[in-house]
Design a protein that fits this description.
Blueprint: E1 5-6, E2 9-13, H1 20-33, E3 41-46, H2 50-65, E4 69-75, H3 78-88, E5 92-96, E6 105-111, H4 120-130, E7 147-149, H5 151-164, E8 173-177, H6 186-193, E9 197-201, H7 220-228, E10 233-237, E11 244-247, E12 253-254, H8 256-269, E13 278-281, H9 286-295, E14 299-302, H10 306-316, E15 320-322, E16 328-330, H11 339-353, H12 357-360, E17 369-376, H13 379-384, H14 386-399, E18 404-409, E19 415-421, H15 425-441, E20 445-448
Parallel strand pairs: 3-4, 3-5, 4-7, 8-9, 8-10, 13-14, 13-15
Antiparallel strand pairs: 1-2, 2-6, 5-6, 10-11, 11-12, 15-16, 17-19, 17-20, 18-19
Length: 449
């Protein structure tokens, strides 16, 4: 586990956990590291948080102070930075965002020259510099770098997405929840350009309202909006738009598992799957696996985190993967989850099949799922306790293949996550509590979080 950077960047409360000094030093390191043989060229994007502007300035100052050039994409999405970096040959990219977190948090995500998340070795070097373990000289005279407006790169990304649509959206009423975040301008412009009758909520960012009762983490608002306005479909994004959840015309949520199902099935029917598997995390619903089995589509499971999904896809040549949260990766088109791309691919399926979204998920049964977090004395010791293992095995046997249990460690806290899927919510509650009770009886449980 890295000291500062997790699986999705350096994230924390603005100027408490992640300070402006951190941002300056990260920029300085990147400008120096990638500028050892040529002048570094680094693309920077940001979301709509008030602190994002501060970090943009600090990163730019660090990059230019070390002799690199900082190219500013301004308010844009995480996947757009990934696209621009690989399409325009940048040395690396930086996205300033804390994704779905509240405005008080922020984060710095680093990408390599392929638009992928920066590798652990590089992150370790950045952290060594943050800890003061090395010195980096300041550039002087004409070696000092420049800050360059690069909004044209963001516009090319918008054009790229529009080019991927295979149908006109004419006469289709689409709702977008932009979470007062990165898609607040580009979301409507893309769907309008494709001919949709576009209706938008939460597209008035003020620096403080990103994700506030909005976007994919508060999908209930889009559900109501779609039904109240008689829309054909709705899409909700998170703050930096690497996630997308859909809402069908009846107001039902279509989560990441359902999106992977309908898109993989369509790819299979169109002969585009090429024998590749669907890559999920261990948290995907058992209903997805049963539905994929029925179609003869294989799948693989990774640890929780879109980074692990992408690495599996890249290493094994798989074309689609993602998480329940709506972080979906289409490897032919992107190296990261892309909420706007996901919306376009869902629209493609709906228009290919000439069916409403509700009909596309009719053959998919999502099982009720309950997760409880418990604080324990020792995560590994609890998982290794024969009594806890026996309790988990009993749950598995009791469910008779119509559900499952998953015990998973938190990577940052003394917490175990106890998750059960079963035919009813009541059964989920019963089986989760059975395992937690055994943890209590064996002295491991401190409290349910």
């Amino acid at each position: 586990m890295s000291k500062y950077f997790g699986t999705d960047g350096f994230r924390g409360e603005a100027n408490v956990d992640l300070t402006v000094d951190h941002a300056f030093k990260i920029g300085k390191f990147l400008g120096w590291y990638f500028g050892r043989e040529h002048r570094a060229q680094i693309a920077i994007g940001k979301d709509t948080r008030r602190s994002s502007y501060m970090y943009e300035c600090a990163l730019s100052a660090g990059i230019t102070a070390a002799g690199g050039d900082a190219y500013l994409l301004h308010v844009t999405t995480t996947p757009s930075v990934s696209y621009v970096v690989r399409a325009d040959g940048f040395d690396c990219g930086v996205m300033i965002s804390a994704s779905h977190n509240p405005y008080t948090d922020n984060g710095i995500k680093l990408m390599n020259g392929h638009g992928e998340k920066m590798d652990d070795e590089m992150i370790a070097q950045v952290e060594h510099y943050l800890d003061g373990d090395m010195e980096i000289p300041l550039a002087t005279a004409d070696h000092i770098g420049r800050t360059i407006d690069y909004s044209s790169g963001r516009n090319r990304y918008i054009g790229y997405l529009i080019s991927l649509a295979t149908h006109s959206y004419k006469d289709i009423k689409v709702g977008l929840d932009c979470a007062n975040g990165s898609t607040w301008q580009m979301g409507k412009s893309i769907f309008d350009a494709l001919g949709a009758e576009t209706h938008v909520i939460n597209n008035t960012p003020d620096g403080l309202n990103i994700n506030r009762e909005a976007g994919s983490t508060h999908i209930e608002h889009l559900q109501k909006f779609v039904v109240d306005n008689g829309l054909d479909i709705g899409f909700a994004f998170d703050g930096d738009a690497d996630r997308c959840l859909a809402v069908d015309e009846k107001g039902n949520v279509v989560d990441g598992d359902a999106i992977m199902y309908i898109c993989a099935r369509n790819m299979l029917e169109r002969g585009e799957l090429d024998g590749s598997k669907v890559v999920t995390t261990v948290m995907s619903n058992i209903g997805l696996y049963k539905a994929l089995d029925a179609l003869g589509i294989g799948y693989e499971k990774t640890a929780v985190g879109d980074r692990f999904v992408y690495e599996n896809m890249r290493d094994n040549g798989h074309l689609i993967g993602g998480e329940q949260s709506g972080h979906i990766i289409f490897a032919k088109y992107a190296n990261t989850g892309d909420g706007l791309l996901t919306a376009i691919k869902v629209m493609q399926v709906m228009l290919d099949k000439k069916q409403p979204l509700s009909a596309l998920t009719a053959d998919l049964t999502i099982y009720p799922q309950l997760l409880k977090n418990v604080i324990v004395d020792d995560k590994d010791g609890t998982l290794a306790d024969p009594a806890v293992q026996a309790a988990a095995d009993k749950v598995t046997a009791d469910l008779h293949g119509e559900g499952r249990i998953l015990l998973r460690k938190s990577g940052t806290e003394p917490v175990l996550r106890v998750m059960v899927e079963a035919s009813t919510h009541e059964l989920c509650e019963e089986k989760v509590n059975e395992v937690i009770e055994v943890m209590k009886e064996t002295g491991h449980l401190i409290r349910v979080k």
